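Supplementary Text 2. Reproducibility record for the structural model of the 69-residue chain.

All settings were left at their defaults, and a single model was retained for analysis rather than an ensemble. We include the record here because the model underlies the residue-level annotations in Supplementary Table 4.
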Amino acid sequence: MEIKDQVRGLRESTGMNRKEFCAYFGIPYRTMTEWELGHRKLPDYVLRMMKYQVKMEKLDKQGGTVDGT
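Retained model, structure tokens:
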């Protein structure tokens, strides 16, 4: 899967629209648009950090921890 598809999939998995996702992560709207369209390369470390943050938010909402307890 291409990085542009991964970042779009991550955003969609949160239920946020592009504007909300950008505000949450402090990313300029145009930058996010260019990442999702594949016009600009998203640094791998940024995608990993965003995935981590989304995962931690989901765990926190579920009252769980990283190890599943």
